[in-house]
Structures are given as structure tokens and as C-alpha cells.
Amino acid sequence: MNPHENMPGPACAAEIAENFLLTAPDNKKVHSVLDLCAQDTALAVLEPLLRINQGGDRAAVISIWSQWYFALLLAPWTRINMLYDWQLPFLPQSIRFTQSENAVPDRFILADIGRAVPPCEGTARFEELIDRHLAPVCRTLSRLAGIKPGLFWNNAGIRLAHGVDMALQQGADITRAVEFLAMRTLADGTPNRLYQPVREIPQPSGPPKIIRRLCCLRYKLAGLEYCPGCPLVEARQRKAGRCR
């Protein structure tokens, strides 16, 4: 057996080292993703950001927190997966994270370096991620926020799709990811909660306008405006256009 066959190549290893830690820092509090799978422990993780935004819309605060979480975890995880056919850990017990002084996730610590994933696995790599990581996390966040989980699935899907786009820009074959995001249902017949997280609206000139499926609620927080891809803004503009 080749002793190096279960180790990433130099380029892949460099990408992993740039985006993730394998050893927890000594000077920061470390949380397990398992903490996000139960309401009481998840609330303890979110409480610092809720205190900073005291009086702000609770669902909007938790949505903002989740965007940091998914952006720093899912985007590079997916990009590395697509570029190198390398699957990093995804189970909650295999991932820890630290938070910044602004009380949002800032670094993820992996339990191991991951493994090679055969291209023949197709979309199964994403289905495991959904079932064993995203589903419990989105469920817990939605309960704490007091809203349906669709918003958190949309936040996750957008970041996963961003990772796919980054991989494409680096020359990766993203066929499997594109197929996955176009699937309305998964292999077991359940809905694909990450299905088409954004819509593309053709413009008279230039690239299409990218619109989220669901509003992220950031406009409900002091000092923040609607994001450029907000579906509420798009609906308002469309309605105004019909009334002219």
C-alpha cells in the first residue's frame, strides 16, 4: 500500500492549511459543532452576539451568525471537495470552532485531514453533509430564532454554491455539484433543502441579477440595509414596474 495514498497532495494540503486548523488555539474558547445540535448549548454559543445586538430582532441576529458559520465552513469545504476530490470531515463531532471578538465564528478546527473521495460517489458526498450536519444545525437555529428552518437552509445553500463557483474559477469540474443543486429531491425521496438557493434574473445588458430565495432579515438590524440580492427588494421593484 502506498503510504501517501490517504494524504492530500501539496496543493490540496496548502488549501486546507489556509482555511482550517487541525489543532485548537491555546488562547481562545473552543466550541464543538455538537453544541449547535441542541438548543441549550447552541444558545450559549449565540448568547454573546445576542447581547451585542440586545433589543435587535432575534431571528435576524441568528441569521447573521449562521451566515458567518456557513461562509467560513461550507464555501472552502465545497471548493476543496470539487477541486481535489477530497472530503474534509463533516460530522458535528469532528469539527470545532472559535469565535471572534465580534461573537461570530472565525476559525474551524478539523479532527483530521480528511480522505480522498472517488468521483463515482457523485452527489452522495453532499447528501451525507445535509443529513448528518446541516439538518441538525439548521433545525436548532430555527427553533432558537422562532422561525421556519428554510432561511437557514438558504443561508447554507448560498455558501455551498459560492464554494462551487470558486472551484469553477480555479478550473474544477463542478458537474456533480451543479447536478446536486438542481435536484428537487434526494435519493431517499426527501426534499433537497439546498435546491437552487438563488435565482438568476436576466438583465437587458450585462450579467444576470442574482437573487436569494429567501430574505436573510439583515435589514431588521440597526445600521444594516437590504442586501443587493434581497428577494423583497426584487419583488418591490417588479411590482413598481407593473404599476407604471
Give the tags.
244 residues; mainly alpha; Transferase(Phosphotransferase), domain 1; 3-stranded antiparallel β-sheet; two-stranded antiparallel ribbon; 7 helices; 46% helix; 10% strand; globular
CATH class call = Mainly Alpha
Structural class: mainly alpha
Q: Which residue ranges are poorly predicted, with pLDDT under 50 across at least 5 consecutive positions? A: none
The major pleated sheet works out as: 3 strands, antiparallel
The strand order across the widest sheet is: 1-3-4
Termini separation = 71 Å
Total beta strands: 7
CATH topology: Transferase(Phosphotransferase), domain 1
Tell me which CATH architecture applies here. Orthogonal Bundle
The backbone outline, from C-alpha atoms, is: globular
Number of alpha- plus pi-helical segments:
7
Q: Please, what is the average pLDDT? A: 92
Helix content: 40-55%
Number of domains in the coordinates? 1
User: Compute the gyration radius: what is it?
Assistant: 19 Å
Strand content: 5-15%
Strand-and-helix sequence, N→C? HEHHEEEEHHHEEH
